[in-house]
Amino acid sequence: MGKVRLRKCRQCGAEFRPMNSMTVACSPSCALELGKKAAEKKVRQKAREQRQWIRKQKERLKSRGDHLKEAQSAFNAFIRERDRDQPCISCGVFSPGGDPRGGVWDCGHYRSVGANPELRFEPLNAHKQCKRCNRDRSGNVVEYRIRLRDRIGDEALEWLEGPHEPKKYTIEDIKQIKAHYRAKVREMRKEAA
Asked: Quick check: 2 pLDDT over 80?
């Protein structure tokens, strides 16, 4: 009969002489602890799988409108991050103070999403705007236009105010837009850090 090699206990790390090739713990108490850890790991894995399944089901049940809201939210976050060091496009204020509606800044569209949905995700059409101008003053469009001309130039402004082809986004298009702008925000925040 050959010499039995010592093994390291998977629980406590002590060396021991195994009873057979399947023995992984030095004592019954270590074996119980290993069993508990394995059971806990199984429970965590099952919970993770269930969360993933729920997430997939929720994604499957989303409407086109739900996807559009998420993409719009990602685009708005991108605009606020892009214009972080800029003042409000309409009134020129740098720090308007807190707002009971949450946050300080909005993503203000020069040509509104309702009137021009084809420009909803156009970066030239959207800029950081204080809530007061965007919500209380309906975009403060006259001042917006004056500062927008200075920021993007006459040619781009003329294009923005001109006619545009209507766009019909598919759900896949919307998902790509959302992913694109979320990635850009992450990249910009990483560069800023």
From this structure: no
